[in-house]
Amino acid sequence: MIGFIDTSAFYAILDRDDEHHRAASAIWTSLLQDDTILVTSNYVIVETCALVQHRLGADAVRAFQQQIAPLLTIEWVARSQHDSAMAAVLVARRNKLSLVDCVSFIVMREAGIRKAFAFDKHFAEQGFDCKF
Fold first, then answer.
1. Is the Cβ–Cβ distance between 38 and 3 less than 8 Å?
2. What distances in angstroms separate CA 71 from CA 5, 39, 74, 88, 92, one per listed residue?
3. Where are the domains of the chain?
4. Which of 19, 41, 48, 57 could be a cystine partner for 10, CB 3.0 to 4.6 Å?
């Protein structure tokens, strides 16, 4: 199985005080045991590092980089994907729909990935399966 992982899932794994931490940890363990191919984008990596550094500090970024990132397949966003995602953000005119989310949707669709490890409601709204 292949699953795309969003910032919301990475953050929930790392922050023991996050409301989704317990569920995220269980899902993460299950994905690793099932040898799921874990995919994300470089945009999600940047967003995750910024969020984790701001809220949890440099040690948490180090833990992410050393313990989680090596297990990931990172899709590097092409200019055409960026441009398409930016157009989607501008057309949607929704304050909480981010460029990173729109890039994720494009990357997932182009790669044929249907499952998302995410606690962000936008993935389900876009028709992705967020249940593992």
1. yes
2. 11, 9, 10, 30, 33
3. 2-75+112-125
4. 48
**Cα–Cα dist 52/8, whole Å:** 11
Q: Report how far apart, in Å, the C-alpha atoms of 52 and of each of 7, 32, 97 are.
A: 9, 22, 20
Q: Which residues pair with 40 in a beta bridge?
A: 74
Exposed / middle / buried, residue 97 (Cβ in 10 Å: 0-12, 13-18, 19+) = middle
In CATH, which superfamily holds the domain spanning 2-75+112-125? 5'-nuclease (3.40.50.1010)
The model's pTM is 0.95
- pLDDT (tens place) for every residue of the chain, 132 residues total: 999 999 999 999 999 999 999 999 999 999 999 999 999 999 999 999 999 999 999 999 999 999 999 999 999 999 999 999 999 999 998 778 999 999 999 999 999 999 999 999 999 999 999 988
Structure-token pair, residue 47: 């967003």
